[in-house]
Write a structure and sequence with these properties.
The complex is a heterotetramer, with 2 copies of chain A (404 residues) and 2 copies of chain B (325 residues). With 404 residues, chain A is an alpha/beta fold. In chain A, 40% of the residues lie in helices and 9% in strands. In chain A, helix 1 packs across helix 2. In chain A, the strands form 2 sheets. Chain A has a 5-stranded parallel beta sheet, sandwiched between helices. Chain B has 325 residues and is of the alpha/beta class. Chain B has 12 helices and 14 strands. A 7-stranded mixed beta sheet of chain B has the order 3-2-4-5-7-6-12, sandwiched between helices. In chain B, strands 9-11-10-13-14 form a 5-stranded mixed beta sheet, with helices on both faces. In chain B, helix 3 runs parallel beside helix 4 and helix 8 crosses helix 12. The longest helix of chain B has 15 residues. Chain B is globular. Chain B starts with a strand and ends with a helix. The chains are: A alpha/beta (404), B alpha/beta (325). Chains in contact: A-B, A-C, A-D, B-C, B-D, C-D. Chains A and D meet through strand 1, strand 2, helix 6, helix 7 and strand 8 of A and strand 1, strand 2, helix 6, helix 7 and strand 8 of D. Strand 1 of chain A pairs parallel with strand 2 of chain D, so a sheet runs across the interface. The structure holds thiamine diphosphate (2 copies) and magnesium ion (2 copies).
């Protein structure tokens, strides 16, 4: 009331610009390239089981990515996207959550879903859009989702999940609000974590989502994956500020930047963010810095827009680094690990072969789920379509044989 | 029963809905303490708390993004867009997200609990940006339901149906009628089902079809036509998606003629869909071309609003043209 | 003349346009150094400089906002939206701003120099978000022009017309044909006027009408129908706003039958407008109901895309139904 | 290339949030409440003529606002919006521009248009949407615009002008770019100034406009009018950061906050911003802090949402303050000033009486300007409408008599 414009109240006579370099945001790093704790670094609270699960998940995703990239080249799936270089950022952040916290991702975060327990078969069913796909074969490969695992189904339009995450998180907080005074009456059980790329952060939905979370106080962790590229567009053609983290201040959101190739640092930062969120009900912005080691997707070839030199100076591997940490800790048996990885690669190939033979969804799935129950118009359209397919079975081999 | 205007009827429907579900939230620009620029949410923040009835920052895309997330989590999300003219920044969140949420996820997730309320329509000297009727933009989007009430009673019953419906629904409120439409409305809960048109008055020569504030106009035209010996059957479509082909087709089969009237520009308005469907359904029964009396294909004007709007006189001449075809 | 695919034809039209006006700019996501994800703008940054052919940040509403401003200043603004499915965040800037800029200001200002290019349409296993055909959303918006080419030749001539036209135009590029449609295209400048449909082949029993990639389908169906003794008149609408009522009505007056086919969902698609208008214009000449063979009223699917799309077989059966009515 | 993620390169082991209070942005103030220069304040370069023009413009707008508010109450115009409390911010910022710089405003900036020379009659013609209105009577009152005066026609949807201003400004820069190296080859002639409220700054278009201006380097001054309210929504329900200025850093945009009730400070800050823009081709963000002294519009009554106490502690009048400055300078004759103001109020009333009697636009203006030339469909619709109006002249008195 004495401050209706909601601003700092200090006054100056000096006619000077605030310079964008006013904030010089550091990147939190705990492990060196070899996985050894850096001087002054404080190890977060992490147990062996969690550390190993993070590691196994990263290995799994690396193997899956390599195999599926190859499968796409062979024409077995139409499309694929690798997590290459960002496995640490994604896996360790997911690991710092409770398993029933909500995750709303962009698309390159298969590692988080795996960490939650999505099975190899489930990955395959989605990619082959067969009738076992939870998404009923309706979206392109890599658009996973699982209600059971609290992992929102991926949607291609970029940035849309950001304000949605704010809304989802807000619902998680409502039961903890004291209606009388509007204050938190208890620690919040679950929060929402929202992943997005530095490219998607240019969308208006980013602005809306972060501002609303700050104003309405929603317990959401905004996890920005700054990997340097949005398809071919480099980060310096995407924004002119200091990364994404520098925007946190403008929204009044607590912010932290972390080395995304350092799984331990990511784990520590996300843990801290989650703790803050459940206690205060407020959002946190985490920016992960990890280079996109691979192509944008199988439709892309980065040699058209970035240099060999750049690629050769940006090679940080989060898996190797975390492996070093585990070895130092004495938590990993390297031989066993290698054997498991070999076996895994076999399993993936086998799973491809199984999934590609599973039938496609039935014709009824063309019109189901548009509404909770098909409206009359859709029933009519389905009937007409069925009759047509039946009349021309050769032209529609996928469904013709199964129409009742 | 009580005498209510449309705003009070809407407020009553919102009140019941808020009491029904502990997670239900109402939000939008100025809807909190102030109760909305039209006062539709008046008194609700006081009753249900600032955490369940609240102002949002000024961002329609944010309001709908937030609403989608809230609804996906199972909370009834009742979002207000201050004027339908300002729903377009939220178009992506509605058309690409709300409408496709259930389908794309194989029903792992859905935003069935989402209801969008927005005042729409002209006749209030609002010019380009306080007059639009954007229903047709959404009618082309499978996954959405669209509902428009014509009076206070309908507003309460239909809004309750929208909020209870397990699909994202846009509820277009004819703002010209907010205070003008007064009538008996039950204070208790009741529901008018979505997807059913209502034959408001029966007739034999021609079917007149409209929705929302335009109902007043076609009813007026029907009265005028009656004086000239033409018997009109008047239908309120009420629900634009899904729409009640059966009731309309049945009527047209009887009368042999159809006139559709809406405020939005004629080209690719929802009247086009109705005409296209009914010429198919009733081809052999039609005695004259289906007629559309709608807004011109221009932005909504101001000084010449009277000339622009599809008023009763225009409807009347189209009725005569149709009958004399 | 040279053999060009559609991408090359587009690139050539862009090249000519850039050389024509010193302020002309091409911009959008990845259109700069890389030349666009489909490579339509390939080589242009090198030729015209980074200040005239450039990447934008990833914000469609920003791209169109920027484009409106640039065009208002008199610079030919050629904006690319990477996929038509992602045009919705820019909906407000297009529908409330571009379309109404001239009208609301009494022509003090206008964005006539704006052209929006965007790849649209299905048939490429793209699922919900790499397949949409959103033309009808814009067709309900007075102030915009909408153009869709069916092949490489048309693409160059029409795109040149769009860029030269003094109104905001959306140019929908059928991405399925980008590399598939190859033909003779003049290397020099030429223009195909906006607003004129083209009778692609004459016939007497029924008129088939489509645009863009769907032309291939109806031409195929016409071939199949011919074998069954049915003579189809095939028309490419080319321009959806304004559309050539005269050419279509003339054809339907002759054939007595009309079939419209588009990929977008049938409800409130542009086929609805055509049907509504033509049943009016040609009421006494129609021998059967106007038929629409379009996408189902669902989001665009993936695994069952083949079942979903309005293919030649579906068009053929609708032709037969119409002729046998 | 060594920094593909475009971020600060310093590293830390400390797991600490960047706190939103990291920036404590001061407000530039030069004049005290009485119009005397504050200690340490440096007077900007301003001549008597400019200072008087600023003052006269503010007086004019205050009188116009009062009169038109009353006219609305009498039912003579349908709608009005006052600039009350922000006259200094708007007038002085416009005064710091060149007359042919582009202004893209929100709606409450009639003072800028007046400064450029929009006549009383022109204001009236717009508000009465008569046939002399440059906008042809199509928009609600206060939606002014003038090509001649480089003042973009107001459009009601909020925030849309922000990225448009970036685009407009970019076009002003193109001729000054050296195609070889992409650098500026000369100082830029004209820039664009974009006004918007702190409420509109929540729109996605704000984010897009500022980010694009920073990345593409457009010479645009973003002038945020933080007046504490967006209709009934107070600034603390609009954002949680330190005003709008705190966002500048995140975009990498030079930023300055100024007391909006201090016309001299606004003038100085905008002058500095313009200088920077023409020299570098880059944007500047200016935030003006000035309370909305009046209602949002004639449709609004603030007693429904803000307290008498708040209103009584926020009463800064930019006109009084600047008057004090002029008097100290010896630039103003108070008696003459008062006489002029009296006369002005009479002139306004007279102008209302004239404008309300001017005919409305002809029926042809219903379909003109939808396209550059009416498309056949519109010609047809116009013909049908004319015939209808002619047939029912009593029902359409505005146009019936004039149809040829
Ligand atoms: C609204 C929207 N616009 C454009 C696209 C096309 N597109 C897909 S991914 C992508 C780049 C995203 O970059 P970033 O957010 O940095 O994520 P990253 O791929 O680096 O993980 C673009 C432009 C889209 N999917 N949605
Ligand atoms: C897109 C859009 N949404 C909502 C509105 C309705 N509206 C008009 S003014 C206003 C408040 C604007 O506040 P602010 O930007 O702070 O400007 P101020 O009125 O304080 O000058 C609102 C919500 C609108 N005009 N446009
Ligand atoms: Mg990226
Ligand atoms: Mg304000």
């Amino acid at each position: 009331m004495t401050n209706p414009q909601n601003v700092s109240l200090n006054v100056t006579q000096a006619l000077e610009f605030i310079d964008p370099s006013a904030l010089d945001i550091p990147t939190v790093s705990l492990l060196d390239e070899n996985g050894h704790l850096v001087k002054d670094a404080v190890e977060p609270n992490i147990d062996k089981e969690t550390a190993l699960k993070i590691y196994k998940t990263m290995r799994f995703i690396r193997a899956l990515d390599e195999r599926m990239q190859a499968a796409q080249r062979q024409g077995r799936v139409s499309f694929y996207m690798q997590c290459l270089g960002e496995e640490g950022a994604v896996t360790a952040s997911a690991a710092a959550l409770k398993d029933d916290d909500m995750i709303m991702a962009q698309y390159r975060e298969q590692a988080a879903l795996r960490y939650r327990g999505f099975s190899l078969e489930q990955f395959m069913n989605q990619m082959f859009s067969n009738e076992k796909d939870l998404g009923k074969g309706r979206q392109m490969p890599i658009h996973y989702g699982s209600k059971e695992l609290h992992y929102m189904t991926i949607s291609s339009p970029l940035g849309t999940q950001i304000p949605q995450a704010t809304g989802y998180a807000y619902s998680q907080k409502i039961p903890h609000i004291n209606a009388e005074n509007g204050e938190l009456s208890s620690e919040i059980n679950n929060i929402t974590l929202c992943y997005f790329g530095e490219g998607a952060a240019s969308e208006g939905d980013f602005h809306a989502g972060l501002n609303m979370a700050a104003v309405l106080k929603a317990p959401v962790i905004f996890f920005a994956r700054n990997n340097g590229y949005a398809i071919s567009t480099p980060a310096d053609e995407q924004f002119a500020g200091d990364g994404i983290a520098s925007r946190g201040v403008g929204y009044g959101i607590k912010t932290i930047r972390v080395d995304g190739a350092d799984a331990l640092a990511v784990y520590a930062a996300t843990q801290k963010a989650r703790q803050f969120s459940v206690e205060t009900g407020e959002p946190v912005l985490v920016e992960s810095i990890a280079y996109r080691l691979g192509a944008h997707s199988t439709s892309d070839d980065p040699t058209g827009y970035r240099s060999k030199e750049e690629e050769s100076t940006n090679t940080k591997c989060p898996i190797q680094r975390f492996k070093g940490y585990l070895l130092t800790k004495g938590w990993l048996d390297e031989a066993e690990d290698n054997a498991q990885d070999e076996a895994l690669r076999e399993q993936i190939l086998d799973a491809v072969k199984v999934a590609e033979k599973v039938a496609k969804p039935p014709i009824e799935d063309l019109v189901s789920d548009v509404y909770d129950t098909p409206i009359p118009l859709l029933e009519k359209q389905l009937e007409a379509l069925k009759a047509h397919v039946k009349a021309h079975p050769d032209a529609y081999p996928t469904t013709a044989g199964r129409i009742k | 029963m009580a005498q209510m205007n449309m705003l009070q009827a809407i407020n009553s429907a919102l009140d019941i809905s808020m009491s029904e579900h502990p997670l239900a939230c109402i939000f939008g620009e100025d809807v909190g303490y102030f109760g909305g620029v039209f006062r539709a949410t008046s008194g609700l923040q006081e009753k249900y708390g600032k955490h369940r009835v609240f102002n949002t920052p000024l961002t329609e895309q944010g309001i709908l993004g937030f609403a989608n997330g809230l609804a996906a989590a199972g909370a009834p999300a009742i979002a207000e867009i201050q004027f339908a003219d300002y729903i377009f920044p939220a178009f992506d969140q509605i058309v690409n997200e709300s409408a496709k949420f259930r389908y794309r996820s194989g029903n792992e997730f859905n935003v069935g609990k989402l209801t969008i309320r927005t005042p729409y329509g002209g006749g209030i000297a609002g010019g380009l940006y306080h007059s639009q009727s954007p229903e047709a933009y959404f009618a082309h989007t499978p996954g959405l339901k669209l509902v428009v009430p014509r009076n206070a009673y309908q507003a309460k019953g239909l809004l309750r149906a929208c909020i209870k419906d397990d699909n994202p629904v846009i509820f277009f409120e004819p703002k010209r009628l907010y205070r003008a439409s007064i009538g008996d409305v039950p204070e208790d809960d009741f529901i008018i089902p979505i997807g059913k048109a209502e034959v408001v008055s029966e007739g034999s020569d021609i079917t007149l079809l409209a929705w929302g504030a335009q109902m007043e106009i076609i009813e007026q035209a029907a009265e005028m036509a009656k004086e000239e010996g033409i018997s009109c059957e008047v239908i309120d479509l009420r629900s634009i998606q899904p729409w009640d082909v059966e009731t309309v087709a049945k009527s047209v089969t009887k009368t042999g003629r159809l006139l559709i009237s809406h405020e939005a520009p004629v080209t690719c308005g929802f009247g086009a869909e109705i005409a296209a469907t009914i010429q198919q359904e009733c081809f052999l029964h039609l005695e004259s071309p289906i007629s559309r009396v709608c807004g011109l294909d221009t932005p909504y004007p101001l000084a010449l609003e009277k000339e622009y709007i599809p008023d009763a006189l225009k409807v009347l001449s189209a009725i005569k043209q149709s009958v004399q075809f």
